[in-house]
Amino acid sequence: MLRIVLRREKRTLSAEDVTVTDKPQVRRAVSAAALGNTMEWFDFGVYAYLAGTLGKVFFPASEPGTQVVSTFATFAAAFLVRPLGGLVFGPLGDRIGRKRVLAFTMIIMAISTFAVGFLPSYDAIGFAAPILLLVCRLVQGFSTGGEYAGATTYIAEYAPDKRRGFLGSWLDFGTFVGYSLGSGLVTILTAVLGSDGMTDWGWRLPFLVAGPLGLIGLYMRLRLEETPAFQKETEQAEAENEESDPVEEARQSGKGRLKEIFTRHWQAVLICMGLVLLYNVTNYMVTSYLPTFMTETLGEDDLTAQLLVLGTMIVVVLTITTVGRTSDRWGRRPVFMAGSIALVVLAIPAVALIKQGGILMPAFGCVILGLLLVCFAGTSASTLPALFPTRLRYGALSISFNISVSLFGGTTPLFASGLVQATGNKMVPAYYLMVAGVIGFIAAFFLHETAGKPLRGSGPMVETPEQAQALVADSRTEASRRARDIWIKLRHPWARREGK
Q: pTM of the predicted model, to two decimals?
């Protein structure tokens, strides 16, 4: 019995267990994944900044407040199909590979966004116009269902363990760069063409930019290779299935994977949904609802509101990789918990400052919200993939992420605008953020720390062969120490007492 215990404790890492990452491949992986997010959020930035204009184009018969709610209802509709996209693309990515699915989602997203720029207005074809807009949004939502989870999975499976937070933060760096580009383009067009020019034809231009962006992103993604973690998982699965075990075949099927996700990993699913709720309620409140809140509810002019939110996004872009690097040093859990507490405490002061009007006070309020947002944006891409094992990672993350985003994130502008209109209370956005902060804190409390550790189901990943050799040597030393302690404890218990 003692020999069995000692053999188990002396198991060590071998050189084959440690993956040495290729720096050029890591750079390509991060760039290609981030570009997809850039394009996705370019569309969101455009849609958020054009909400009032699109309401006039596609819902002209409604009152201004109803136009905004109708436009955000179309925006939210895209999120209703995101879980469906996650159910399709997520498990598919675990079976045929991350690279192929990410290329396919890029194509669908580019085409659907590009098509919005060619839609006829309500004045041209009547009720069919908002129906066509809804169809384009549904296609966008379906493709996005496999986009973010796939991109985070791809970067996480390529990143060295000690730099996963920093490298993962570049994904959301692309997110906010895309939003800034989209919102910046709308701001420039609004300044040049004016509100009437934007309503007549200028609103089409930002959507037409999506076509070239999509081609660039597709080219970069087609040049990618599969992640080392997925390749090893595939080789192992093929070796195990050579005997055609019916039980294992059922486990590898789509239904088998879904059952495993919700029966064996339900705690990770709930934690993931809570963290996604925290991040995305804050995200969509700032990026999608805040411009409209300031113009339609507070009476700010379009250009002022657009510049304030654009400045907030620049703050996020400039700080996000620093937060990612900090999470590598301090841990993901402390960053999430601190951000959650700060959101509960500072949401009311931030919204109160925005309500003051003018430039200076709203600018302070927007910066506060931006700094709260970056706590979650800089940490999510490295935290969420680590919740699930390799063979289920893409599917489990896609399903958990998209269910939470659909129910709570993407509906934030719709619910917030509807509640403000129904209650007349302009502090509703602050209360909404506070509830998200409480839920996020609970999820972060149950989160296991993953900073600097290998992904579940994968071996360690390092940057250099020297780091790999040191890791193997440390593993052997630690295993020998554990075996020695067990030997002393079982065979010479008095030695430990004498040593105290």
A: 0.82
